[in-house]
Task: inverse folding
């Protein structure tokens, strides 16, 4: 029986990054999110949502954003898996790389489930579900 983990450790993830700089240490360990801290990312997300909601109060804009985000997650996880796949042929890293690719593709499937669920939630004047127009 093959064990497929639900997650991979940060150490294993760092080891598997194909194009990573050796012994990369961020200048500010708090700013791991494209140069932003956790708090700055949360603040940016909330400001963006508030700005969007002021411009358009119809929930279809939220549905469109959620679909776009889920599609982005699918693409990101799939692209990452494809980047790591060559490492699965390297006998020294094969097992960990295969485990990592499996986790990435599993998460891409979860993002696809999110996309499908959001897609099927109906709204008034839903142009996503209403294909007659």
Result:
């Amino acid at each position: 029986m093959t064990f497929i983990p639900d997650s991979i450790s940060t150490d294993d993830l760092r080891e598997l990054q194909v194009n990573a700089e050796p012994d990369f240490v961020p200048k500010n360990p708090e700013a791991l999110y494209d140069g932003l801290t956790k708090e700055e990312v949360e603040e940016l997300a909330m400001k963006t949502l508030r700005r969007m909601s002021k411009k358009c109060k119809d929930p279809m804009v939220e549905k469109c954003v959620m679909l776009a985000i889920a599609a982005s997650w699918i693409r990101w996880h799939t692209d990452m898996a494809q980047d790591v796949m060559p490492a699965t042929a390297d006998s020294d890293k094969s097992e960990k790389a295969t485990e990592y690719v499996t986790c990435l593709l599993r998460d891409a499937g979860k993002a696809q489930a999110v996309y499908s669920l959001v897609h099927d939630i109906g709204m008034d004047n839903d142009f996503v579900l209403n294909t007659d127009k």
About this structure: Residues 57-119 form one domain. The mean pLDDT is 84.
